[in-house]
Amino acid sequence: MGGIQWRYLGEDAIEISNISSSIHVQLGLRDYLKGFPKLGIVSFMLTDKTLTLVSEKYGFMSVSHIIDRVAAYQHKVDENVMLPLSIIPICYDEAFALDQLKLEGICKLDYEEIISLHLNAEYTVAMFGFMPGFPYLNGLPLSLSIPRLKSPRKIIPKGSVAIANEMCGIYPNQTPGGWHIIGRSPLSLFDPLKDDVLPLKLGQRVKFQRISKKDFDGFTPN
Amino acid sequence: MDLPLIRIINSGNLSTLQAASRFGFSDFGIPESGFQDKISAQLANWLVGNKRFNTLIESYANYFEFEVINDCSMGVQGACSEIRINGQSVSLDQGHHLTVNDRIQLFNNTHGAILYLAMTGGFTGTEVLGSTATDITNGLGGLNGLPLASQDILKGSKFNTPRQTRSIPEGLLSRRYFSKNVTVHVIAGPEAYLFTKEVIDNFYSHAFVLSAEISRVGYRLTGHPIHADSYNIPSKTVLPGTIQIPPSGDPIILMADGPVTGGYPRMGVVAKVDQPILAQLRSGGRVRFLACLPEDARLREANQRQWIEELYHKKTER
Question: For residues A7 and A18, what is the distance between their CA atoms, to the nearest angstrom?
């Protein structure tokens, strides 16, 4: 990786920008840097081709050592590292697809076509952000890529699956939010009291599986 | 074993249990939370012989009242102008022993915004991901993830029996940094390049007014709209202290419970050493920004940390 760009984010964090857009390369770089504890990095955050590194108490001793390591990183594709595919049940019933009409209008498609495009795509968990456990999923078909709502909704129900720009996301809890709601999943995506706080992992592949309203109502999380 | 310590009679505004931050889960989307004014919080804990990050009450109350259920020792720091125990005014900068049925009133009509109330042994809170700090936005930690309310009963260690009374030594910073006009240092942010030189000069040469929109998530400033060349940027990491410029032009400074990502240009980040000063500004107060280099901010923070650590390590005088 030549021509590495980095900037400070406060006195004890730096941001390395324009790294590969592949989440697997990003995770590989993160895990590689984790192998050098003397660099003093205590927190790693991946967002859109950017890796944010936070230092221990007193700031990084040497940013140039970190940049040297980033430059030395060679990504080797290791298929074994690929995380298993996660299947997420989704119900597209009109009771849940709160933006059905808007989506049909903007995408110029009927809802069954929108559903089939959404179901056929395979997604990758690119980052978590916005709120605990909110996954940003890459892989939304371009024909479903639409801008955010002009004014955010005050209440988005828990489990809502939503799309905006080139991303799909799932709201783990009720919140205000500005993405178009396409359906709802009965899965719980964030439980801070469980050992496995987040059932989804960074880099994981995701596919949606359609369920009926009846199945949704009778869904019991395992 | 836990013992009920106090019953809140008047919880005031935005009172929560706070402790060491929930650090290291930003890649799960989880905010840091924890003390907003680390200085006052650590002094309050010191007054009652606690560790620096024991669980205590943080409150924006102008008036806070509680009664004592079991004997305990109390340390109050931060924005408090008067403490009354059973109607009697007592000294602000020392620990106080309390006994069953005592009624405590805390008043704040000073410049500071946030008061800290510590009890020997700390309060009991729900530990979530290693921290008892309350994040009310996401319902984590504290007392069932909720803000404190009147009639809440707070528990603490049964080993909270009064041990000693400490006083803040003469000459220590204490609450002297509270003001209605503050200056805070700012390290240029990753999107500073999205602003013209003129806009940046404006940003650093005018005082902003702190609006009434104050929460543990963020403080909104008004008075000098700042405009970026572009707002079309993807969501990036934000930390407490990050100054974001939304299209309205009124800067938002993220505080302890702020989200981990944000999609507005990041003009800068308030130096950690000055974050308590900012946190203690009251609505209507003024803030000026002063550009500084990361190394200067670190040096000043190291000094601040050092005097607190020295205070904690000093042999306790009786």
Answer: 12
